[in-house]
Design a protein that fits this description.
The chain is of the alpha/beta class. Helix content is about 35%, strand content about 15%. The chain starts with 13 loop residues before the first strand and ends in a 7-residue tail after the last helix. It binds adenosine-5'-triphosphate (ATP) and magnesium ion. The site of adenosine-5'-triphosphate (ATP) has 18 residues, from α1, β4 and α7.
Length: about 210
C-alpha cells in the first residue's frame, strides 16, 4: 500500500516510525510526529502501538483494541499519518528491531526508516535487542521534552555509544509536557482532558469509561 502511493518509486521513500503504548495517544505524540515529518521530509509517519511491551508487563495497560482505535481516531485527519497493527497482532512481545525489520524490508530498495523516540530512551539504546543491526537499518530522531538539555544529550550519547552520533538527529519539541500518564491521572480524577488529546479520542475514553479506576 505504502509503495503504491509513491508511484512505485519505493527507493525515494522515507518513513517515520513512532512506537508507543499510546494509552492514550496525545497531542505530544501528534505534534512530534508532524514536526518530524516536515523537518525530515518523511512521506509517512506510521504509529505502531505496542502489543505487550516487556517493560510494562506488570502495569495495567488498556486493551490493544482500545489503544489501536484511539490511535486511528487521532490520525484520521492527517493524510500522512497511518497506524500499524504489526506489534499488536504479534503473538510474542516485539522489539524495536522486529518492527524496523518489518518496515525496512529485505530489499535494498526498501524505504529509508526513521525511528522517532524520546531522547532518554535513545541513551539506553545499547541495551536494546540487536542494537547494532538497528543502527544499520534506521536513523533515529530523538525528541526532547521541555527542559531537556540537548548539549548534555550529545555528551551522554558520545559516551554511551559513539558509533551512534551520526545516526541520531535531535528534535526539540517546545511546550509539550503532556504524557499519557498525566491524561490517565486526570481522567481518573474526573478532571477535563480536553485539548490534551484530539476530541474523538476524548469521546472514546468517555464512552468506554477508560482510566476511571486510576
Ligand atoms: P506514559 O506516560 O504512559 O509513559 P507517554 O506519554 O510517555 O506515556 P508513550 O506511549 O510511552 O507515551 O510514548 C511513545 C513515544 O512518544 C515515546 O518515544 C516517548 O518518548 C514519546 N513521547 C511521549 N510524550 C511525548 C511528548 N509530550 N512530546 C514528545 N514525545 C513524547
Ligand atoms: Mg512513556
Amino acid at each position: 500500500m505504502l509503495f503504491l502511493r509513491n508511484n512505485g518509486n519505493a527507493a525515494a521513500m522515507s518513513i517515520g516510525l513512532m512506537g508507543g503504548t499510546f494509552d492514550p495517544i496525545h497531542m505530544g505524540h501528534l505534534v512530534t510526529a508532524e514536526e518530524a515529518r516536515q523537518q525530515f521530509d518523511l512521506n509517512y509517519v506510521i504509529f505502531v502501538p505496542t502489543g505487550n511491551p516487556p517493560h510494562k508487563e506488570k502495569e495495567t495497560i488498556s486493551l490493544p483494541e482500545h489503544r489501536y482505535l484511539m490511535t486511528s481516531l487521532a490520525v484520521m485527519s492527517n493524510p500522512y499519518f497511518f497506524v500499524s497493527t504489526v506489534e499488536i497482532n504479534s503473538k510474542t512481545p516485539t522489539y524495536t528491531i522486529d518492527t524496523v525489520r518489518h518496515f525496512s524490508g529485505s530489499e535494498k530498495e526498501g524505504p529509508e526508516v526513521y525511528f522517532i523516540t524520546g531522547a532518554d530512551a535513545i541513551l539506553e539504546i545499547f541495551t536494546w535487542k540487536d542494537y547494532e543491526e538497528l543502527l544499520r537499518l534506521c536513523t533515529f530522531i530523538a525528541v526532547s521534552r521541555p527542559g531537556y538539555s540537548l548539549d548534555r544529550f550529545r555528551e551522554s550519547l558520545n559516551r554511551a555509544c559513539p558509533e551512534m552520533v551520526n545516526k541520531v538527529h535531535l528534535l526539540e519539541i517546545p511546550a509539550l509536557a503532556v504524557s499519557s500518564t498525566y491524561i490517565r491521572e486526570r481522567a481518573a480524577l474526573g478532571k477535563t482532558i480536553k485539548y490534551l488529546t484530539p476530541e474523538p479520542v476524548e469521546q472514546y475514553i468517555k464512552k468506554h469509561d477508560l482510566y476511571l479506576s486510576g
